[in-house]
Amino acid sequence: MTKIIQPISAESNYSFSARKGEVYLVGCGLGDVEQLTLKAYRIIREAQVILYDNLITPEILELIPSETRKIYVGKPKDCHSISQDRINNLIADYAGQGFSVARLKSGDPYIFGRGSEEALFLLERGYSVDVVAGISSCVSGSACAGIPPTARGYASSFSVVSAHLKEGKFNTDWLPLLKLANHTTVVLMGLSLAGRIKKAAYAIGISRTLPVAIVANASRPEQESIVTTLAGLEKAAKTVSGPAVIIFGDVVTLHGKLPQYHPQSVEVQPI
Asked: Do 31 and 125 share a domain, yes or no?
């Protein structure tokens, strides 16, 4: 097991326990502080050690008390500076010292994250784990752009897929979903693969005019929405930077007709 090179000093204000500390896998939603659950907010304020991803916004990080140990474990695309095994062991090591540990994750811990892997690793080693659900971009990303995943007369069902598989492989298993009538398909981690998605969709006969929307940085000040078609997907994807969701289906035509998210500057006070 990985050892902590610089353990928390016994002279700190923390109360040390020989018992294993509680671990929280906390979903932090899309990035807007006001969209945190009350439980997520409380844990962020109370945890003694916090490990956080690269998609956790500065506004959420500002909620962390100054005395809390903060550890960056982000894995940006094509720049994984820290392995998942290392993250697992860091959580276990700090909890093993008796500290309460919060692992902050963008969106929801169980929606195309590594929450299940982390939870299994810890549970198999006798640690107590609490998973705190968060708002996922697969639902609220589209809502922020005024695009409902389901709307009567437009879509009676929707699917959520990832364009990436393990080791960066391109996932094409979901493409037949684009043929379904009255259906919405929400694609995560697909922005950099837009060209390949377009080509593969053409190959199975998907119409060039299929409505498509890209919603980038949902709920953040830099939120941006682009409405196009399958034919324009690749070009549109080159004009924005992630994180982003891609939405396929007739519900995209409701963009501009329904309310959209407008970030507001709000000072969040401790509960």
From this structure: yes
225, 255 contact by CB (below 8 A): yes
Range of the domain at 171: 137-254
Catalytic-role residue among 3, 39, 70, 75 = 75
Give catalytic status of residue 173 as yes or no. Answer: no
Q: Which alpha helices (H) appear in the chain, and where do they start and end?
A: 38-46, 58-61, 84-96, 115-123, 137-144, 194-203, 233-237
**13 belongs to a structural domain:** no
Structural domains in the chain (count): 2
Mean pLDDT per 10-residue segment, the chain (271 residues): 39 50 96 95 98 94 97 74 91 97 96 93 96 94 95 97 87 97 96 97 98 95 94 96 94 95 54 39
**Contact criterion met (CB below 8 Å) for 68 and 49:** yes
Q: Is-contact 223 142, C-beta < 8 A?
A: no
pTM given for the model: 0.85
Catalytic residue among 3, 20, 39, 53: 53
- Domain of 93: which CATH number? 3.40.1010.10
